Amino acid sequence: MSRPVAVGWMVAAVLLAAAAGPTAAQIQFQASVDRRQTSEQEPIHLVLSVQSVENITRVPAPEIALGDFHVEGPAVSTQVQMVNFATTYGRDYTYTLYPKRAGTFTLGPARLTHSGRVYQTQPIQVTVVAGAASRAPTPTRPGGQAAPGTADPPAADDVLFVRARTDRRQAYVGQQVTLSYDLVYRVPLANVGFRELPSFAGFWAKELFAAQQLNARREQIRGVLYNAAPLRQMALFPTTAGRQRIDPLAVSCDVPDRSAGFGSPFQQLLDDPFFGGGTRTVLVRSDPVTIDALPLPEAGRPAEFTGAVGDFTLAARAEPAEVQVGDPVTLRVEISGQGNLETVKAPPVSAAGFKVYDPKLTEEPRSDDTRVGGRRVWEYILIPDRGGQLQVPSVRFAWFDPDRGQYRQAASPSTTVRVRGSAAPAGPANVASRTDLEPVGQDIRHIKPDLDRLQQPLDLAGSWAYWSGLIAMPACLAGFVLYRRHQQRLQGDVAYARRRRARGRASSRLRRANQLLAANQPAEFHAEVQRALLAFLADRLNLPEARLTPDLAAEALQEHGIDPEVTERLRALLVQCEFVRFAPPTNAAATMDEALEQAGRLLAELETRI
């Protein structure tokens, strides 16, 4: 074989090998974590990485079982790299995993299916230790001794924890237990959110309060001053006897990352997240709560008892006091008080001489900061079937009073109803006799009595209604076309749609602020005014609302040539609202009228200028 031919075969072989290589291994699928040991409070970041020599935009998401963790994500990122004229495509799936409990867990294997092939990662074992967040090592000198002025950073549960409190740890079945959760902290917090909510199995639960923002109060705990912010308050009613366990409530938040230790006070200030310092996300849980649910006693249980537990009153009234045979009498029974209204059933009603129909129920639940209650009203319809003095008997109701630990009963007084007439006739009611039907035909009036006039030809050319209709049709068609164009522009032009809705949204928020003004809620009022102004500017200028601050709003108005005096008034009002929201003064209510009026004037001025 000649040398040129041999060289040609070698080149062809190399090209075939290069072409076959990627086909044999088109995708590399790997898993990695940022740590293999963590605490119950710190998350693990799991990254599933896909690398390929071909474009992988259509690769489906990997499958992985993560039942032992609360999962955020995945966040997806893509990369394209070129090395030695070869292009490599990459895609990373990043999961944030919050442990549900301590222990040793296995992540994966994760599976990925592409082009009929299944790719699988190696499993990763991680360990979650109970207690506080893990600490980073103290900074040391090259010789191995601790650097002067440093100390171990405090554990997370020393400065941040969730407190669970109940008004009682022992309750009867059906008795209310009030459970409160507080976030207790003494470090700056950001991005606070519920991560794990208890299921309250074994209880009938009603939410009394859920925080939308942190409204902390100063509180001294074990000699240390903390901020304590209410998170959630629940009214729980045990449904079965025995020891009932309430799982922890978990909250995630960002705290300053001081794992490198504490230096000078100036350095601590720079580490604060509000000054651009680093943060880390932690997960804090409350302690589980155990409630001993006692069964209701059998001794002394009345026959009328149907399961109501609490403190109730009974009232009943029958009216009218005098009717004709066959006319209805309404018996109104009302039970009100504190307790779970779901356990209050309709009292049985029977009355000799009356036909009793099923009652109509009206319910008005009420709850305050700590107790649940309300009232239930039943309306029974009683139809007397004979004349005379008939008795509507007493209505009886029984319940268990957990504070006294005994059953109680109430009875309404009986009512006498005078019924006129004799026994109601048998057979279907409200059936007319033949004599009643005969004269009906005399009352019929023909729809077209003047037949000759209706048959006269109608002169449409001389009718103003006819010509008005002809002229109106093109106008209606033009209006319909304009409306369709307006709707299409709203759907396709986001900026136009936001400008159109800006004033409406702002006016709605100001009306809500006016309601909060009447309710004397300064913090909520100023928050609503601030949202109204910022949302209006964001919609009119097509800016992201979440990023607007008083200073950024002022800069945006300056860029659009708005009068500096108007810009400064807007910024000052926004700063005032922000100040009252988070640090309300004692006389905040005095300025609410002025703030609402000023906001309305600013919206009217800005609407004509931007």
Describe what this molecule looks like in 3D.
The protein is α+β, with helices and mostly antiparallel strands. It folds into 4 domains: 23-129, Immunoglobulin-like (Sandwich), CATH 2.60.40; 156-294, Immunoglobulin-like (Sandwich), CATH 2.60.40; 307-420, Immunoglobulin-like (Sandwich), CATH 2.60.40.740; 494-607. Strands 21, 23, 24, 25, 26, 28 and 29 form a 7-stranded mixed beta sheet that branches. Strands 10, 12, 14, 15 and 16 form a 5-stranded antiparallel beta sheet that branches. α8 (522-541) runs parallel beside α11. The N and C termini lie far apart (83 Å). The model is unreliable at 1-25, 133-156, 260-267 and 427-442 (pLDDT under 50).
Structure keywords:
Immunoglobulin-like, disordered N terminus, 30 strands, seven-stranded mixed β-sheet, alpha+beta, five-stranded antiparallel β-sheet
Write the layout of secondary structure elements.
Layout (H helix, E strand, L loop, with lengths): L2 H22 L2 E7 L3 E3 L4 E9 L16 E15 L2 E14 L3 E5 L3 E4 L2 E4 L3 E6 L26 H4 E7 L3 E3 L4 E9 L4 E7 L6 E8 L6 E5 L2 E15 L3 E5 L3 E7 L8 H7 L7 E7 L3 E6 L10 E15 L2 E3 L4 E11 L14 E3 L3 E8 L4 E13 L3 E5 L3 E6 L4 E6 L3 E6 L13 H4 L13 H4 L9 H29 L1 H25 L3 H20 L8 H10 L4 H19 L9 H16 L3
CATH C-level name of the largest domain: Mainly Beta
Shape, principal axes of CA atoms? extended
**How many E-type strands?**
30
**Average predicted local confidence, pLDDT:** 79
Calculate Rg over CA atoms. 38 Å
- The tally of structural domains comes to 4
**Contiguous runs where pLDDT drops below 50 for at least 5 residues:** 1-25, 133-156, 260-267, 427-442
Strand content: 35-45%
> From the coordinates shown, what is the CATH architecture of the largest domain?
Sandwich
Largest beta sheet, briefly?
7 strands, mixed
Examine the coordinates and then state which fold CATH places here, giving the name of the CATH topology of the largest domain. Immunoglobulin-like
